[in-house]
Design goal:
Layout: H1 17-28, E1 38-41, E2 44-47, H2 55-67, H3 70-78, H4 103-121, E3 127-131, H5 135-147, E4 155-159, H6 164-171, E5 179-184, H7 191-206, E6 216-220, H8 223-229, E7 236-238, H9 255-261, H10 263-282, H11 289-303, E8 308-314, H12 321-333, E9 351-354, H13 365-370, E10 377-382, H14 390-409, H15 419-422, H16 427-436, E11 444-449, H17 454-475, H18 483-500, H19 502-506, H20 512-529
Parallel strand pairs: 3-4, 3-5, 5-6, 6-7, 8-9, 8-10, 10-11
Antiparallel strand pairs: 1-2, 2-11
Helix pairs in contact: 1-2, 5-9, 5-12, 9-10, 10-17, 11-17, 12-17, 18-20
């Protein structure tokens, strides 16, 4: 049996006295930001004033973190112990961004740098087509979108979905002679990625290139599969099985980022993330940004029963931050079994959703203000803009602060401005006042970046990584596996076989609806082939 990485691997139970004291303190704590609470971490300012807070809650939280052995768990994570207990692996993604990483990491980092330098010096490949999905896709998408306005001379297209329209659109209008196809897959067996990669390879061959394989790069933890597929050894870049896909932006997966927006972007992200690592490892729990964000997350989910959390970056360049965090958090925390295999009896990982402000305000903020459920919100904003229109940024900052203040303050029917207050004595006025009232007390966190730099983005991503880890320790779950995803892939493989082979279909016991549509779709598939 795999040794548990820290002493307390059993999930907490509602009847535990330490947990009960934490719950009581959370319910009694102030919910209207009675005092300012801002934590400085790796150049970011994390304002948790609008989360539950009190001296009693701080004491109860400290006791809970001690009982959950957070310090030991954190040490096990950074020491490379087998914290991914269900797969018997470490989770050492933090070493990928260190200034002086282990030799094998440093060597692969140098290979990536040299390849990018060669491509830039020779002015090779004006177009990059990046083929990957999940963790192999969202990180590069996010970084390129964040810094893609820097005037680089290459274009990059991302192809992830197995829908044929995705690869068709990804290749449309490009010249194979001036295109590099980057195939990113940890296992190099991912169905969607490998089918799209085959289509891209056939497209290169159809371009009558003298050496089509010279236009293909593989990034994988399974270099043997990449070699067997045909990629030249010199164009296979490695990462390792102790790097989870949703943490892989720090690895060679960053190569397309370096090609499209520059190696200095990757270096800056590594530096920012490493500084956040130091903060997480050394700051006292009460002044530790990932720890305090995690405590707020646990309170909001397991005590106040919020089923979701909105992420609203007030910067359009961070559009892809929302799906990036969706994968990070919902794959990591979407668990109902503890590290020891016992059921978790508390609500775990919330739904993560959102979009950039101010678009979000005209889309779902009505629900946040007056919906019966509501949700905590992470507001993310840059103090300084990188464009030349200060009026735009002033309005953006004002909207961010105003929406957060309104969610927190609320508005009662007795405190209506204008005509509603003046006519509150009559029936119509009372009804109108009720429609305009908002509950208030909605929790939120404000994260302020000095400006959107690679350093700040790296620190931000590491902040969320460590927040997720702390939440997993409190809930007693494994944040580094994703067996539900793997099961879905297994079922999909069987359905693919059933669509094309009657014997495979008859060998399975499908529910009536799935069986009906396999029969229906198989006729369409066979009709296409005939």
């Amino acid at each position: 049996m795999t040794r548990m990485p820290w002493p307390n691997a059993t999930p907490p139970v509602p009847t535990d006295p330490v947990w009960q004291e934490f719950v009581t303190a959370a319910h009694q704590a102030d919910s209207h930001a009675a005092s300012l609470r801002v934590i400085d971490a790796a150049g970011l300012h994390v304002d948790v004033s609008a989360q539950r807070q009190s001296a009693e809650l701080d004491r109860a939280a400290e006791q809970l973190l001690t009982q959950r052995h957070l310090a030991a768990a954190r040490e096990a994570l950074f020491d490379g112990e087998l914290v991914n207990v269900s797969e018997g692996r470490a989770a050492q993604h933090s070493v990928l961004r260190e200034a002086a990483p282990p030799a094998e990491v440093a060597m692969e980092r140098e290979r990536v740098r040299a390849f990018v330098q060669y491509a830039d010096t020779e002015r090779r490949w004006r177009n990059i087509v990046h083929v990957g999905i999940g963790g192999s896709d969202w990180g590069p998408r996010l970084a390129v979108a964040a810094f893609g306005n820097t005037g680089r001379w290459r274009t990059i297209r991302f192809v992830s979905n197995v829908d044929g329209h995705a690869i068709e659109g990804g290749l449309a209008g490009l010249d194979p002679r001036d295109t590099l196809v980057v195939v990113s897959s940890k296992s190099f067996t991912t169905t969607e990625t490998m089918l799209n990669a085959e289509r891209a390879l056939n497209w290169l061959r159809a371009g009558e290139l003298p050496e089509p394989w010279q236009h293909v790069v593989a990034i994988t933890a399974n270099p043997e599969r990449a070699r067997a597929w045909g990629v030249p050894e010199s164009q296979i870049f490695r990462f390792w099985d102790w790097v989870g896909g949703r943490y892989s932006i720090w690895s060679s997966i960053g190569l397309p980022v370096a090609l499209s927006v520059g190696s200095e972007v990757l270096a800056g992200m590594w530096a920012g993330a490493t500084e956040m690592d130091r903060h997480f490892k050394t700051a006292a729990f009460e002044r530790n940004a990932p720890v305090q964000m995690a405590l707020a997350g646990v309170i909001n989910r397991s005590v106040l029963n919020y089923g979701s959390r909105a992420v609203v970056p007030y910067d359009t360049r961070l559009f892809h931050l929302v799906p990036y965090l969706q994968q990070l958090e919902m794959e990591s925390l979407g668990k109902s079994v503890g590290l020891d295999g016992s059921p978790v009896t508390l609500p775990t990982g919330p739904v993560v959703w959102g979009m950039p402000g101010t678009d979000a305000q005209h889309t779902f903020f009505q629900w946040l203000h007056q919906g019966s459920d509501g949700a905590p919100v992470d507001f993310i904003v840059c103090r300084h803009a990188d464009h030349r229109w200060p009026q735009h940024h002033q309005l953006l900052l004002a909207n961010c602060l105003a929406q957060r203040a309104a969610l927190l303050r609320g508005r009662s029917p007795q405190h209506m401005p204008g005509s509603a207050a003046e006519t509150a004595s009559d029936a119509h006025g009372a009804k109108l006042a009720a429609h305009r009232a908002t509950q208030g007390g909605r929790p939120s966190t404000l994260i302020v970046l000095p400006r959107l730099t690679p350093h700040a983005l790296g620190a931000l991503l590491a902040l969320y990584e460590h927040k997720v880890f702390v939440e997993s320790v409190i809930w007693g779950i494994n944040p580094f596996d994703q067996w539900g995803v793997e099961y879905g892939k297994t079922v999909a493989d069987r359905v693919v076989a059933a669509l094309t082979d009657r014997a495979s279909y008859e060998a399975e016991d499908y529910d009536p609806s799935t069986g009906h549509w396999i029969e229906n779709f198989s006729r369409a598939v066979q009709g296409k082939r005939s």
